[in-house]
Structures are given as C-alpha cells and as structure tokens.
Recover the amino acids of this structure.
C-alpha cells in the first residue's frame, strides 16, 4: 500500500488490477445528524450523484452510521472523471433537485429503521450519535436548502476526506473539494449504567452490546468471536433456534468502541434465544474460553485476511481511518495482536465489558430477563404522574373507550404521560429533542432524547394542552412545515 496526497486529500493506493476500483470517503454519517436533520447526509449524497452525467460506469454511493463513500469500478480515466465530478458537485450542490431527491429517499425506503443493532445503540445513547439510526426522523422533506448546503459545507471538505484506489491510479487525477478542516465530532453521552441491563425493543432478534475504552481491544474481539461461535453451535446446530449470528464493531472515538452481537430467532422462540445468549455470555465471563476456541477465532481472522480482496479491504480501512481521524492498524498488526491473545486475556476482557452489557429482547418475547440483571426501559418512565396541570379526554370517552383512559401532565419541570396500559412516561423539558407538528399543525408529537414520544392533540386533551406544551417547550424545538413537497414522479 502506498500513500500520497492529491489536492490536500490523503490517497491510499495499491496495484495488482487492470481495472480501477476507487472510493472517496468522508468522515460523516447518521451519527453526525440530529433528530430534526436525519437523512441530511444521505440527501447530500443523492444530490451529488444526481449532478453527474449519465454513465455506464459501475458507480454508486452509500451513507452509513459514521461515513459516506462514493465509489466506482472501471477504466482508470472514467473512474477519475467520476471522482472529480463528485467533488465539483459537492462544492455546488444542485439544490433545485431538493424536492425530487427528498422524494427519492422516501421511495428508496432507506430511512433509519429499528434494526436490532440500532435498538442497541439507542438503548445506550438515546436519540444521539448512533442511536439516531433507530428513528426515521421527521422526514427529508423537512430539510431546507440552507440546512443541506450548511451540512455539505461543514462535512464534505478536504480535511474530512480520504481516497482509496485499488488498481491503476487515474492519470492527472484532481479532487477539487472545498477547503476546510475536519469538524469536531460530538461524542454521544451514554445513559448511566453501573452493571449489565436488559431491555425490550420492537426490533426483531436478540442483541448484546458491549463497550470498551481500550483501543483496538484484541482480547475483547477474540472473546466476542468465541461467544458468537458457541451461540452458532448451540442456537443453530444444537437446537435449531437460529440461522444467523452476526457481530458489528463501531468506533465512536479512539478510546470508545461498541461491539454488538445479534442473533436472529425462529418465530415464537425469542425467549429461548435471549436466555441462551445471556447464559453463553455469562458462562464465558465466569469460566473463559478454551485454548481451542481462541485458536479457532484466530484461524477465522487468518482466513479472512487471506481472501482475494483482502488488499482492497485494507485500503478501504486505511482511507476510512484517515477520513474519520481514527488510528489505522495494518492487518498484519491486528493479526499479530489476535495471535497473542490467551484464554485468560479473553476472559479478562469479557469481564471488564460485562458491566457495560445491554441485552435487547423483542417485546414479543415472554421472558422476565436474566436473573440478577436489571431491566431498563428504552424510554424514561416514572412511578406515577407528577404534580402539574392535568389534561384528560372527556369523561364519556374514558368510559366508552379503554384507549382513551390516558392522562397528560404539564409542569414546570417537564411533560408526563400515562398511557392506556397505566405506564407513566416522563419527558423533562431539558431532554426535549423536537416538537413535530401533526394533523396540519393542530397537534404535536413531543420527541424526547430518551426515546419517549408523547402525542398531544386537541381532540384528545383539548387546545389548552397544546398551548401549555408550546409555552413550556425549549425555544427552537418546534419544527416548521415541510420545506419541500416531492412531486409524485420523483421516485421514477
């Protein structure tokens, strides 16, 4: 692998191919948005791609939780023209297509969804950082031209970009991105936690999330691989309860890593899988893996690094780290670190991570959680309604309709809502993320950073309730009407 700099952008290259595959990577993704601006990075990506001429080049772009990449494969000069075109488009986005591309995003159906990993991140961080991926937000049609251009000007700059190229580097390649340094990234604050917790989510599958502050924690990586292998043996091969066991690592900073393990479950067997996941993890924390299990995990990494496209994967990793400001570790160094891990090292790493554990279980599972592990609801709950101004549906509706047996309290400290099941949800004003207008502005949905959503509508609580919320809510949290309405043909 060679490193160069073109127009202020670090470039990582390697030969060995006749055709060129290249990707321009930016250190910005969904974690850098807010609830009100969810999809703005994706919209910038779509606008840049829409500005390019039609081509038969194999090219595309993708927005992920922490990065955005534009990539292409083909003849070197065609790939070079694509990369230069992307840079010029990012410097001057075709915002006349804002409404159309907002419609395309809606048609694409790639807004954030409640995947198990997203639910785990949200359980840790609420509606901040990677936790934002649990929500679709108010929708891209709420994004204004000014907001989109400001986001592009802040994040899609030379100091926040890197390029990797596998195959011939296009001759005379230019990367005319706007000048600018890498913006500081907000580091999301996790919910307080002094031991493992479990929670119910509306996502399918069972998930386990662990955190570490040890950079490139090889011992924890090996330990998690062993947990995954034992679960495959037990849940899939032994009992036929599951098909896939997957893991995903996310580095929020050089000293903060989140490792997720996700296990799907046969319909009706979520509780068995959840119990199996926790018992397997707890067993390894207590007794540790065998030398054979550690050796098998290391052999798996060796096989992965011996695959045909391993060189391309290392190039992509180097560019990703350069764009995001994370330290890069060559594959050989990672493999050496894994080979040095002993069963005792893996056991110690799993034990260190155990107090950070979050176990996510589908809310359809009939299960009371692991013995001795506290249940933590996804959103903020209260034992009872606090003091304040009480709003309720009319008496005749409460008598006839069980769903109307709800209550709303507005106080100086915040908002509280008792739902039809009797659960009380509390939203301090300081934790209000947004007020989303509903029903042509007649009602409101109060969105909390702690994942609670409270619907306030005059037909249910009367107009005084809406006015009381608007009076108390923090300034700037009320979202405006949609900035654009996508035409019906936008998805064609």
């Amino acid at each position: 692998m060679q490193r160069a700099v073109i127009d202020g952008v670090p470039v990582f290259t390697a030969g060995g191919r006749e055709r060129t595959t290249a990707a321009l990577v930016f250190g910005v993704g969904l974690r850098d948005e807010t609830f009100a601006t969810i999809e703005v990075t994706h919209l910038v990506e779509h606008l840049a791609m829409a500005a390019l001429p039609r081509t038969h080049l194999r090219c595309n772009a993708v927005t992920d939780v922490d990065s955005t990449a534009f990539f292409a494969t083909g003849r070197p000069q065609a790939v070079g023209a694509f990369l230069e075109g992307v840079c010029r488009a990012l410097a001057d986005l075709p915002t006349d297509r804002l409404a159309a591309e907002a419609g395309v995003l809606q048609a694409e159906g790639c807004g954030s969804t409640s995947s198990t990993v997203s639910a785990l991140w949200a359980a840790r961080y609420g509606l901040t950082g990677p936790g934002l991926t649990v929500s679709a937000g108010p929708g891209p049609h709420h994004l204004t031209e000014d907001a989109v251009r400001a986001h592009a000007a802040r994040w899609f700059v030379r100091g926040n970009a890197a390029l990797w190229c596998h195959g011939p580097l296009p001759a005379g390649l230019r990367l005319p991105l706007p000048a600018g340094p890498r913006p500081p990234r907000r580091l999301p604050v996790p919910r307080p936690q002094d031991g493992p917790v479990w929670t119910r989510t509306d996502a399918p599958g069972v998930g386990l999330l662990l955190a570490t502050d040890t950079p490139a924690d090889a011992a924890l990586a090996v330990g998690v691989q062993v947990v995954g292998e034992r679960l495959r043996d037990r849940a899939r091969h032994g009992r036929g309860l599951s098909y896939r066991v997957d893991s995903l690592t996310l580095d929020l900073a050089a000293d903060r890593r989140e490792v997720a393990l996700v296990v799907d479950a046969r319909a009706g067997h979520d509780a068995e899988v959840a119990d199996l996941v926790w018992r397997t993890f707890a067993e390894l924390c207590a007794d540790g893996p065998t030398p054979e299990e550690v050796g098998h995990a290391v052999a798996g990494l060796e096989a992965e690094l011996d695959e045909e496209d391993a060189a391309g994967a290392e190039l992509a990793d180097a560019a990703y780290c350069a764009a995001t400001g994370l330290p890069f570790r060559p594959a050989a160094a990672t493999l050496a670190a894994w080979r040095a891990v002993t069963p005792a090292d893996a056991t110690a790493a799993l034990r260190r991570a155990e107090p950070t554990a979050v176990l996510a279980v589908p809310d359809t599972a009939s299960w009371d959680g692991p013995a001795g592990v506290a249940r933590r609801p996804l959103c903020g709950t209260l034992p009872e309604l606090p003091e304040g101004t009480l709003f309720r549906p009319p008496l005749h509706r409460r008598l006839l309709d069980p769903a109307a047996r709800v209550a709303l309290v507005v106080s100086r400290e915040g908002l509280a809502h008792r739902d039809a099941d009797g659960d009380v949800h509390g939203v301090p004003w300081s934790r209000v993320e947004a007020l989303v207008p509903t029903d042509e502005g007649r009602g409101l949905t109060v969105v909390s950073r702690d994942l609670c959503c409270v619907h306030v509508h005059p037909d249910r609580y009367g107009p005084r309730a809406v006015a009381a919320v608007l009076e108390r809510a923090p300034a700037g949290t009320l979202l405006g009407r949609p900035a654009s309405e996508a035409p019906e043909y936008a998805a064609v």
Q: What stands out?
A: Residues 486-492 have pLDDT under 50 and may be disordered. The longest helix spans residues 218-238. Residues 31 and 132 are 7 Å apart (CA to CA). DSSP finds 14 helices and 20 strands in the chain.
